[in-house]
Amino acid sequence: MKEKTIGSYQLEICSNSVASAIQAEKGGATRIEFCQNLENGGTTPSFGQLKLVRELVHIGIHVLIRPRGGDFLYTEEEMLEMIADIELCKELGMDGVVLGVLNADGTVDKVNTKRLVDAARPMHVTFHRAFDRVKDPFGALEDIIALGIDRILTSGLRNSALSGAPLLKQLIEQAAGRIVIMPGAGVDASNITTILAETGAIAIHSSAKESQSSKMRFSQDQVKGMDEAQWMSSKEKVHQMVDLLKSL
What we know:
The chain is an alpha/beta fold. It contains eight helices and ten strands.
């Protein structure tokens, strides 16, 4: 699928459910990073979610390949699980996958990342925010480029892309068009244009999320939990960012 743009920019929305992905598309997003369990940083969606989102959403869908929360140092069993999930995404006609593997010393695990990239092709491949846990971002950038990966999602090794803007600018300059550096983390309508201006990025990532309380009328007060608020992509928040991008 040829990815749409908003002027010169791409706006990727991280959506944690089929309903969120539909809202993101309605808001004008150019593509979806599709995951579940956003409260824990995101994990790979279920088969049912993947099948349904491909049927109902008509912009690019890039699936997060992450078997669990926590770090990005994976066992062989977890590697095999990720390869199986990638193969399923390919069978279902997804546009891309979002992945990344690190070594214990904070370097990119080139051997295992290549296994995932090889399994993914010809789909598009993004190296996810495992990048923000590396020891040397400039060396990691070259390793990821050498692996033939298409894009890196990163906050510039900070808790937000706005805070990481100086490093993001350096990474984009070093990449020199060889790979897309996509800022993400804490991006919203209040800062999206500033981040783009300060970094020179052409693609940006946001969850555009809002909290939705449980709609249950009955509450079992003797049991704790299982009634928590849920995150949902907001069509209105996406649309606000789209309007700002159109004005650039």
